[in-house]
Write a structure and sequence with these properties.
The complex is a heterodimer of chains A (276) and B (358). Chain A is an alpha/beta fold and 276 residues long. In chain A, 36% of the residues lie in helices and 26% in strands. In chain A, strands 6-7-8-3-9-10 form a 6-stranded mixed beta sheet, with helices on both faces. A 4-stranded antiparallel beta sheet of chain A has the order 2-1-4-5, with helices on one face. The longest helix of chain B has 34 residues. Classes of the chains: A alpha/beta (276), B mainly alpha (358). Chain A: One of its GO terms (molecular function) is ATP binding.
Chain lengths: 276, 358
């Protein structure tokens, strides 16, 4: 579905991504995680064609470099982190914007597009907010509206950039479950996230970007989220333990009882990764 | 219930929101109403002035002129057809152009406080007009004002492009720089000009519609109306553009290209309007705000409403300008006097609106 081959990118002389290659199959829910500043957002921008990259990206068998903006937007939808646009659009207008790549006429969306937006809002559970102004919603509500917009865009591939960052715990789980149900229908999703537990609970597969923008892990989540990997990424602050059938990443026993000094833990994490 | 605050899920399902069709019908009704009000403002203006003409006489002059009725030259005919109607039609063109381009600039630059002159269009056009006045250039003030308005916007746009993008901050700064360069040139013209030339320059910079002729109308009105119509077809794309370049592009809009088309169109209609009216302040900033409060930020409706409200506002201001004293007050003074309090009111009562919390 998504095929990324040998993608590299540098801001000026600072390399951000170095030879990243991976492929996603239809219906896969794949996490992209790693510490801050390892190029996760940059990789998204390279896939979406916002940055001039080296290497090839193809979606559904089509080379994205040869696709026009609107044809690309019919293949991949991007869910940005929630933000506040300068004008107070209604939620229904915001979701309707997802129909833009499918529009044919001169004056914008047709009745069918409005119905598609309606269906997307129902599906994500924001239909009741349709006539509220997007700018007056809470961060969590705005994030769900953006997900509804991506659904209205009706693409086989979804890219989500830290979609749970501003959500409360309940809404985080709700969002993950919604994304799971979308991939269960055959859509493919690549999600950038910071929480290894979310990766374990909800994803099929995990990609880990490490220092200097290299892909250091790629595989089923149980195989990727290991004790040694978590320690390499974040330093000796947490451990991976079995909990019944599940795997849980939890903090190492509180600093006072285990003798780990949080400041030295940060320092050694910084050492392991190169200070950010 | 983790999702209780998200959407009131499970409780609100029974209450279906208003159907999209009904909502858009309401907005269309607002547009029709604005059109009716615009015609009414025009009729009022044509009857009002130093020489009052009753509505019935206005209609008889119009029907005679349009060939529906026999009629000859009369005082009414001259006042209505040659003096007032030209002013009103130019007022419509100028108001529609300034308000439409204001709405476009605010959308493209994602900044509700941007106005048509931010790109240095007015200063460029003033420079061109000054040059024409000083050198008695054969092709008239309008042509040079238009040419230098375009030169100014191209310079601003070129100066502010960084790696294929035009960030708002650089474009505003570039607009200030280009604008002050052209204003310096204009000041130089004022310094060099004769007393007669100086008088023309000053009146031009303060704005006025009193010299409107049918030949102005024939050039300006069609260009502005066609320009506004083309801009209107970009209404939906402009909605998407206000989300930012990257998001717009991920929604299938070629952001840079669309922005360029819109900026050139908006500048062209501004420059052509300014070239005939002189500088009229506030319309491009204030009218799109008022329209947004009435009909919301969807540019498919916002653009036509802005055009009509702008036309109406300029008609009213021009009517005041020519009736408030026995002489002629520059219209720029009237729009500023009416515009500043409105903006102060907006600023104090709708602070949330300016900070994007609408």
């Amino acid at each position: 579905m998504l095929d990324v081959r040998d993608v590299s990118f540098a801001y000026g002389s600072t390399p951000v991504l170095d030879g990243v290659s991976f492929g996603l199959v239809p219906g896969e829910l794949c996490a992209l995680f790693g510490p801050n500043g390892t190029g996760k957002s940059t990789l998204f921008k390279c896939i979406l064609g916002h940055l001039a990259r080296r290497g090839d990206v193809s979606i559904a068998g089509q080379d994205t470099a040869r696709l026009g903006t609107s044809r690309l937007a019919r293949l991949v939808a991007y869910v940005p982190q929630e933000h506040r646009p300068p004008f107070p659009y209604l939620v229904r207008e915001m979701v309707l914007m997802g129909r833009t790549p499918h529009l044919g006429g001169v004056f914008g969306p047709s009745r069918q597009d409005e119905e598609a937006a309606e269906v997307a809002m129902e599906r994500i559970g924001v239909a009741d907010l349709a006539d509220r102004s997007y700018t007056t919603l809470s961060g969590g509500q705005r994030q769900l509206v953006l997900l509804a917009r991506a659904l209205a865009q009706d693409t086989p591939l979804l890219l989500l950039d830290e979609p749970t960052a501003s959500l409360d715990f309940g809404n985080q789980l709700l969002l993950w479950q919604t994304v799971r149900s979308l991939t269960a229908e055959g859509r493919t999703a690549l999600i950038c996230t910071h929480d290894p537990n979310h990766v374990v609970w909800f994803c099929d597969r995990a990609l880990v970007l490490g220092r200097e923008g290299r892909l250091i892990e790629d595989g089923p989540v149980r195989a990727v989220v290991r004790d040694d990997l978590v320690r390499t990424l974040y330093g000796p602050v947490s451990e991976v333990v079995g909990y019944g059938e599940d795997t849980v990443v939890r903090p190492l026993a509180r600093a006072s009882s285990s003798g780990v000094d949080p400041s030295s833990a940060r320092a050694s994490a910084g050492h392991a990764l190169g200070a950010e | 219930m983790p999702s209780a605050d998200v959407a009131g899920r499970g409780t609100g399902r029974l209450v279906r929101p208003a159907l999209p069709r009904r909502r858009s019908r309401r907005k269309v009704a607002v547009l029709v109403l604005a059109g009716v009000a615009l015609v009414a403002a025009g009729l009022f203006s044509v009857t009002t002035g130093a020489y009052a003409v009753p509505v019935a006489d206005v209609l008889s002059v119009l029907s005679a002129r349009l060939g529906l009725r026999e009629g000859g030259a009369s005082v009414h005919d001259t006042v209505v057809w040659d003096i007032r109607l030209t002013r009103i039609l130019i007022a419509i063109a100028v108001g529609a152009a300034l308000a439409t381009s204001g709405a476009v600039y605010q959308g493209v630059f994602r900044n509700p406080l941007v106005e048509p002159y931010v790109l240095g269009v007015s200063s460029g056009a003033a420079f061109g007009a000054g040059l024409a006045v000083l050198t008695a250039f054969a092709l008239s003030v309008q042509v040079l004002a238009f040419v230098f308005g375009m030169v100014a916007v191209l310079a601003t746009y070129g100066l502010s492009r960084v790696r294929g993008q035009t960030p708002t901050v650089t474009i505003v700064l570039a607009g200030v720089v280009i604008g002050s360069v052209f204003m310096a040139g204009f000041s130089l013209f004022q310094y060099l000009g004769t007393e007669e030339q100086l008088r023309r320059l000053v009146f031009w910079i303060m704005g006025g519609l009193h010299r409107s002729t049918w030949s102005d109308v024939a050039v300006v009105l069609p260009i502005v109306l066609v320009g506004c119509a083309i801009v209107w077809t970009y209404g939906w794309k402009l909605n998407v553009l206000t989300l930012g370049d990257e998001e717009a592009s991920s929604l299938g809009i070629r952001a840079e290209r669309t922005k360029r088309v819109l900026i050139v169109l908006a500048t062209a209609i501004t420059a052509i309007a300014v070239s005939v009216s002189g500088i009229i302040a506030w319309v491009g900033l204030m009218v799109p705000h008022a329209a947004r409060l009435i009909i919301g930020p969807d540019h498919r409706y916002l653009l036509p409403l802005s055009a009509m409200l702008g036309a109406m506002f300029v008609i009213v201001c021009d009517t005041i300008a020519r009736t408030i004293t026995t002489g002629e007050v520059p219209i720029g003074i009237i729009t500023s006097i009416l515009g500043a309090p409105y903006l102060i009111y907006l600023l104090r009562t709708r602070l949330d609106y300016f900070s994007g919390r609408g």
